[in-house]
Design a protein that fits this description.
Helix content is 80%, strand content 0%. Helix 4 packs antiparallel against helix 5, helix 6 runs antiparallel to helix 7 and helix 10 packs parallel to helix 12. The longest helix is centred in the N-terminal third of the chain and has 24 residues.
Length: 210
């Protein structure tokens, strides 16, 4: 009897050691994503989904990585799959919008971004990004006043991104709001004095004001 107990204990200890070793060597998909290792992150997420097809976190990180890796069609497909499992996951809603944006599907992308900003808390980490993409879509559609509103919301959330201020300046310039455009270009140059786009935009607008 004692021998059987000892054998069981040894077996359980070996399993525990194996599990600990596996856990130690298994890579974290989110860490890989933050380190710019997008293909590796996708691979880890694929393995996780093979083990648990309903793991929403794996879909989220995978889609973020696919977008960063410019695999937009794959990101659209996998985000849609994830939303079947978790229809109200705001992270999947937003990243699906990004995928559709890069695929040129403006209407579908706008729908996703509107869903996201309507439900996300003010402190949501991707609210600014969603407004930025909405602004870019409005620019594509030559709806510059709408782009001004969306991009103004974007820079309010993320005020230190000079490229966003440049795009806000461009939207205002195209809408004929020249003084407001100068203000946006000036802010971009304050953040990044070497911004060629901001300098050229400011020169264009100043020429129109003279």
């Amino acid at each position: 009897m004692k021998n059987k107990i000892c054998l069981c204990l040894i077996f359980l200890m070996s399993l525990t050691g194996l599990y600990a070793q596996t856990s130690a060597t298994k890579q974290d998909a989110l860490v890989l994503y933050h380190n710019g290792k997008y293909r590796e992150a996708v691979q880890v997420c694929e393995e996780e989904l093979f083990e648990n097809p309903n793991r929403v976190e794996s879909y989220v990180v995978m889609c973020w990585a696919l977008v960063k890796n410019k695999q937009y069609a794959e990101a659209e497909e996998r985000a849609s799959e994830g939303l079947v499992i978790s229809p109200y996951d705001l992270r999947l809603i937003e990243v699906l919008g990004e995928a559709k944006y890069y695929l040129g599907k403006n209407t579908g992308a706008m729908e996703q971004f509107r869903k996201y900003v309507a439900s996300a808390p003010e402190s949501g980490s991707r609210v600014g990004i969603a407004y930025y993409y909405m602004g870019e879509i409005f620019i594509r559609q030559a709806r510059y006043q709408h782009a001004d509103i969306a991009l103004s919301s974007a820079v309010k959330k993320e005020p230190l991104l000079d490229t966003w201020w440049v795009r806000l300046g461009y939207a205002r310039e195209m809408a004929g709001n020249y003084y407001e455009a100068v203000a946006a270009y000036d802010e971009a140059l304050r953040l990044n004095s070497s911004s060629v786009d901001a300098s050229r935009g400011r020169e264009r607008v100043n020429a129109k004001l003279q």
